[in-house]
Amino acid sequence: MMFKEFILLSLLGFLFSFFILKDKERDYLWFTRIFIVFMTLLIIPDILSALRGTFLEYIYFKDFGFLLKFRLDQASLVFLWLNLLLYLFLYFFVQSEFKGHLFNGLMLMLFCVNNLFFLSGDTLTFFIFWEAMLIPATLLLWYFSKESPKRIALEFLIYNFGFSIFLLLGILFLYKYNQSFEFKLGGLYEAKWIASLLYIGIMVKTPVFPLHGWLLNTYYNLPSPVTAIFSGILSKYALYGFYRFYQKASLSLEIFLFLTIFSALYAGYIAWSNRDIKKIFTYMSMSHLNVMLAGSLAMLPYVSPFLIVPFGLFHGFLAFALFIYVYHMERTSGNLFIDEYGALTLTKPIFTFFFTTFLLVLSGFPLFGYFYLEFAMLSFVFKFSLLFGFLLSLGIAVNLIYKAIVFYRLIFIKKEGPGSKTLKDLSPSYTFFSVLIFLIVIFLTFYLSWLIKFLQGGGV
C-alpha cells in the first residue's frame, strides 16, 4: 500500500511548486505531466482496496490530545479520483498555450492541495487545506486574469478567506464539545447553531447568494482551462465539506434551505438573461451546485446526505468538459456570444454532438444518472416542504429555459453566424477526450445504484 507515500509526495509537490515559480528558464510542463501520471499510478492499488471496503488512515500527529490524520474512504475516493482524472485530461488532451513556469507551478500546487484536502481525515486538517487552496487559486487570478487581475485576486481572497472565520469558529466549537477534531456534529445539543456557522463557511465556496460576489469575475476572467478546474474540482470543496460535517446530523436549517433554493433560482435567471456562453456556464454551475446543496439540506432530517457525492461527481466531469469547449470556441472562433452561432449540426457535427449531449445530461435528460439524482434531491425538498419544493422546481425550470436557448441557437437555427463560420470542429485529441467523458457518464449511470450503496456502506 502506497497511501503514506502518496500523501508525502503531494506535500513535496506542493513545496516543489514554489521552486518552479522562481525558475524562469523552464516551463516544467514535462515535469507536471510526469508527476500527475506517477501520482495516479501510485494511488491506484489503494483505490482498488477502498473499492473493496478496505479504508486507509494515516495519523501524522498524535499529541496534546490531538489526533490529526488523512483518510481514504468512500467520499474521499470519489473526489480524489475526480481530481486525478481531470488533471490528466487537462494536461494530455487540452491544447493549452499556458506553458510557462508560473502556470505549471501554480497548477501543480493546486493539484497537490486538492489531493490533500480530499484526503483530510479530521476537521483541523480539513481547514488547513481548505485555506491552503487559496494560495494557488489567488495567484492564478493575480497572474492570469484577463482584466483587473489584482482587484479580482483580492476580491476572491477577501470573500473566501474572510468568511472562513465562520467555518473556523464552527470547527473550534466542535472541538470544545467533542474534545477531538473528528467530524462529529450529530448528537450535540448545540448542533444547530454550530451547523449554521459551518454552513456559512460552505456558502461562500459554493457559492450561495448573497456570498457569490466573487464568482463571475473569477470564472470569467480566468483562462477557460483554469475555469474548468475551478468548476470541476474547486467547487466540490463545499460539497465535500457538507458531506463530512453533516454526515450524521439530523438537523433542520430552514433559513439556509430557503437561501440556497433562492440562490439556485437567482443564478438560473442570470444565466437566462445572458448571451455570453462562458457567463451562462458560470451561473449554470452555481445554479446546479445550489440544487445539490438544497436537496442535501432537505435530506438531513431523514437520512445522511450521501447523494451529494455522486451528484458532485457527475457535475465535475460535465462542467469541466463544457468549459473546455468554451476554451475551444475562444481559440478557434474568438466568439462566445450565442447569437453569433447557428447551423452547427451540419458544419461542426462532432463538436455539436458532444456539446449538446453534455448540456442535455445537465438538463436532466431521463436516460442518464444525473436526472435520477436531481429527481431524488427534488423529492426530498418536496418531502421537507411543498413551498420549498415548488420554488426549487421553478429554479430547475429556469435552468431548462436557458439550456433550451443554447440548443435552439446551435441546432435549429439554419443560418451560419460569424461564430459558426470561424469555429473549427473538434481535433482528434479533443474528440478522444470527449469520448472518455461520455463513457464515464455512461459508466456512472449504469453503476449509479452500486455507487449509492457503496457510499451508504460507511462514512466518516
TrEMBL record:
* UniProt main location, coarse: membrane
Localization recorded for this chain is: Endomembrane system; Membrane
Mind telling me which GO cellular component terms the entry cites? Answer: endomembrane system; membrane
Record carries keyword tRNA processing: no
Q: Which residues form a coiled coil?
A: none
The annotated topology with respect to the bilayer is: Multi-pass membrane protein
Question: What are the protein's UniProt keywords?
Answer: Membrane, Transmembrane, Transmembrane helix
Which GO BP terms apply? Answer: ATP synthesis coupled electron transport; electron transport coupled proton transport
Asked if the keyword Protein biosynthesis belongs to this entry, the reply reads: no
**Could you state a single Gene Ontology molecular function term?**
NADH dehydrogenase activity
TM region positions: 6-22, 34-55, 75-94, 101-118, 124-144, 156-175, 195-215, 222-243, 255-273, 280-300, 306-329, 350-373, 385-411, 432-452
User: The NADH:quinone oxidoreductase/Mrp antiporter transmembrane domain covers which part of the protein?
Assistant: 120-393
Protein's UniProt name: NADH-quinone oxidoreductase subunit M
Q: Which organism is it from?
A: Caldimicrobium thiodismutans
Its organism's taxonomic lineage begins at: Bacteria, Pseudomonadati, Thermodesulfobacteriota, Thermodesulfobacteria, Thermodesulfobacteriales
